[in-house]
Design a protein that fits this description.
Oligomer: single chain
Shape: elongated
Distance between the termini: 20 Å
Largest sheet: 8 strands, antiparallel
Order of helices and strands: EEEEEEHEEEE
Strand content: over 45%
Helix content: under 10%
C-alpha cells in the first residue's frame, strides 16, 4: 500500500526503507579514536520502484512527486502501516515507446522524511 495525501499510487514493485540517523553538530572522533555525539533523530527514506505501468498510472506518480511536502502512508518492513511527512527526490521513468498506447516499463523515486 502506498498513498500520498490519501491518493493511492500504483502498487510498487519494490519499496526499501532506509533508517538514517541524524547526529548532533559535535559528533565525531576524539584523538583517542572514541566516537562521541548525540543521536537527535532517526529519519526514514523510502526508495520506491514501480514495474510496468500505464501513462495514467505514471501521471498519478508524477502529480504526487511534484508536490513539495506530502503525507505518505505505506506498508513498512514489519508489515505495519507507516506514515509521515516527506519530500521527494527526483523521479525517473523508463518507457518502451512514445505512441499513444505507450506502456512504461517502470519508474523510481525516493521520499525523504522531513
Amino acid at each position: 500500500m502506498l498513498k500520498v495525501n490519501n491518493v493511492t499510487l500504483p502498487e510498487p514493485q519494490a519499496l526499501t526503507t532506509d533508517h538514517n540517523k541524524i547526529w548532533s553538530a559535535n559528533t565525531g572522533r576524539l584523538d583517542s579514536g572514541l566516537f562521541v555525539g548525540d543521536l537527535i533523530a532517526v529519519k526514514r527514506k523510502l526508495n520506491i520502484t514501480w514495474g510496468p505501468m500505464t501513462p495514467a498510472d505514471a501521471r498519478k506518480v508524477i502529480n504526487a512527486v511534484n508536490s513539495q511536502f506530502v503525507t505518505i502512508q505505506y506498508t513498512d518492513e514489519t508489515n505495519q502501516t507507516g506514515s509521515g511527512e516527506f519530500y521527494w527526490g527526483d523521479a525517473s521513468f523508463d518507457y518502451y515507446n512514445l505512441t499513444v498506447e505507450a506502456l512504461l516499463s517502470g519508474g523510481t523515486c525516493n521520499a525523504i522524511e522531513r
